[in-house]
Amino acid sequence: MKQKRSNNNFLLASLCLLILGSCTNPPPAEETADYPDPAKNPSSKVMLRAEWVPDDPSQINFDSLPKVPGEHVVISDVRDRDGVNQHNYLIYHDGKFWAMWSDGPGVEDEVGQRVKFATSADGLEWSEPEFMTPAPPNSGEDSEYYGTRSDKGFRWISRGFWLREGELLALASLDEAAGFFGPSLELHAFRWDPEQQGWEDLGVIYDNAINNFPPKKIPTGEWMTSRRPYDYKEKGVYFMVGGAEAIDQWESYPVLGSASELAAEEPLWWMLPDSNLMALFRDNRKGGYLYRSFSTDNGRTWSKPVQTDFPDATSKLHGLQLSDGRYVLVSNANPRKRDPLTLAISDDGMVFHKMGYLIGGRRVDYPYVMEHGGYLLVAFSGGKQSVELLRIKISDLESIKN
């Protein structure tokens, strides 16, 4: 039997009754000394707290988590040609859903990789995939380097949709395909032309940058997105703020400690109810837990990243705040492997108290989640070779009863 966290409130109340015969209610969890606060306690490790959580959260029985019902479809599958399908993103625009992802000749991110997209009226029936980006420079199928990991050839990597001033944009990075990343790294934007029914390359919006998720608005009215330079393993990760006056006008701010306290990778951020910002990082040192940092000045400075108690398989994660105020986080919470894909729920965006099982029994990763019309749509990759999607009724999240 797994050891459970003790009910401190119950014990305290019982002790007060025994000793004093009466006692005022103990303070709520949010007011305890170890609870996170962006300004007062940014170094808190608490991120997963509930009666069902073991003292060692890595010992959760992830396969026995409550199952979240949902409809499952496959958007694209390249296993028959041993290709790659990953880096999945979604958006709803102009009356339909859009998906984009990286599609290449091998697993993963080899010379010649491009970005594809598809659309759907309901999130279940999808159009045939089409290319969004052209062949990388001198790296098409006729290149001698095609399908290799070489600095002699280039690749595109899917970076997400951005709805800016009514225009649908799609971001993609371009760099040499030898490692992560090449010195020619640059971030491009493509604009959807509804009349031509095609994508126009708007060029570079930031040099030496790859984002992780598309920009979102912060309280200043500016946009913000993460940035990794090509040498981020030594310099750490950054956040780019700007994009309002012009698509290519940004300021870049470092997350100090993101290359020393951990090997920060694939940042996710969101705004908290008090308008402060919180960022999460996977740790490529494979410590088994997510790291967290806060900003109280709209992304200009960040607290030193701290290892939390939320388990992680060193895998990409995504989440958002729902229209009802709750936050959801979709990730590979099992620290031993990328199976299953889980969904956790938080009331304040900082500490999660529920966790459910979405899909598993195989390698499932690279999630992206969006809300629309009473549903959650979760795109993910199957073994980096298929783009798949779950459509979940938000009301069915109530089935998560840990």
What characteristics describe this protein?
about 400 residues, mainly beta, Neuraminidase, 2 domains, 4-stranded antiparallel β-sheet, 2 helices, disordered N terminus
SSE layout:
Layout: H1 8-20, E1 71-77, E2 84-93, E3 96-104, E4 114-120, E5 130-131, E6 154-164, E7 167-176, E8 186-193, E9 198-207, E10 216-217, E11 223-227, H2 232-235, E12 238-242, E13 250-254, E14 264-271, E15 277-283, E16 289-295, E17 306-311, E18 318-321, E19 327-331, E20 341-346, E21 352-359, E22 364-372, E23 375-382, E24 386-393
Antiparallel strand pairs: 1-24, 2-3, 3-4, 4-5, 6-7, 7-8, 8-9, 10-11, 11-12, 12-13, 14-15, 15-16, 16-17, 18-19, 19-20, 20-21, 22-23, 23-24
Q: How is this structure best described in words?
A:
With 402 residues, this protein is mainly beta. The chain folds into two domains: 1-32, no CATH class; 33-399, Neuraminidase (6 Propeller), CATH 2.120.10. The protein is built from two helices and 24 strands. The chain has helices spanning 8-20, 232-235; strands at residues 71-77, 84-93, 96-104, 114-120, 130-131, 154-164, 167-176, 186-193, 198-207, 216-217, 223-227, 238-242, 250-254, 264-271, 277-283, 289-295, 306-311, 318-321, 327-331, 341-346, 352-359, 364-372, 375-382, 386-393. The strands form six sheets. A four-stranded antiparallel sheet has the order 1-24-23-22, with no helix packed on it. A hairpin with a 5-residue loop joins strand 10 and strand 11. 45% of the residues are buried. Mean pLDDT is 93; it is low at 1-28.
